[in-house]
Write a structure and sequence with these properties.
The chain is an alpha/beta fold and about 180 residues long. The protein has a single domain, classed as Rossmann fold (3-Layer(aba) Sandwich). A 5-stranded parallel β-sheet has the order 2-3-1-4-5, sandwiched between helices. The mean pLDDT is about 95. The chain binds shikimate-3-phosphate.
């Protein structure tokens, strides 16, 4: 049986796009914690951050993640800050094989800034904010993930294939 696949990584790494392709490849259902938060709050993420604050968002994100424990047959894409909470890191591991999607900082920044809708980058110097957040989080992604995929030079389709191969290798090694 194919395990759940969990994608973590910084803003702009392509978790949702790669996750959707993985869902098509595997037949698993695609689930995105950001979408779960938006659905339960009936408002978008910039609005949650601006009217209720980051701490509130993190709490709803945590509850949304916890509801997925025991759910099978999913590819789970997550918000870039989900690993900040220690309990979330354990929950992610309990849900499935965890892959860290990584890329060079320049590529991540270019992709992250493109939508113009990421609340944490609405600062005077977005690149400085971005670098400082990335530096703080890299270790958390590394300690939570079963493996890391560098997608600096691969498109979403190629990344999805690489990730699936590696996830299956890891899963088989856990089983034996
Ligand atoms: C966040 C990343 C966002 C979203 C929220 C907070 C973060 O998701 O969860 O804006 O703390 O890095 P993406 O990683 O999909 O952009």
């Amino acid at each position: 049986m194919l395990p759940n696949l969990v994608l973590i990584g910084f803003m702009g790494c392509g978790k949702s796009s790669v996750g959707r392709r993985l869902a098509t490849l595997t037949g698993h259902r695609f689930v995105d914690t950001d979408e779960l938060v938006v659905r339960s709050e009936h408002r978008d993420i910039p609005e949650i951050f601006s009217t209720s604050g980051e701490a509130y968002y993190r709490e709803v994100e945590k509850q949304s993640l916890e509801r997925l424990v025991g759910v099978y047959g999913i590819v789970l894409s997550t918000g870039g800050g989900i690993v900040l909470c220690a309990a979330n890191r354990q929950t992610l591991k309990s849900i499935g094989v965890v892959a860290w999607l990584d890329a060079s900082p320049d590529i991540l920044f270019e992709r992250a800034i493109r939508s113009g809708r990421r609340p944490l980058l609405q600062t005077e110097n977005p690149r400085e904010t971005f670098d400082s957040l990335l530096q703080k989080r890299r270790e958390l992604y590394g300690s939570t993930a079963d493996f890391r995929i560098d997608c600096t030079r691969t498109d979403h389709e190629e990344t999805a294939h690489l990730l699936l191969d590696e996830a299956l290798r890891k899963y088989r090694s856990f089983e034996s």
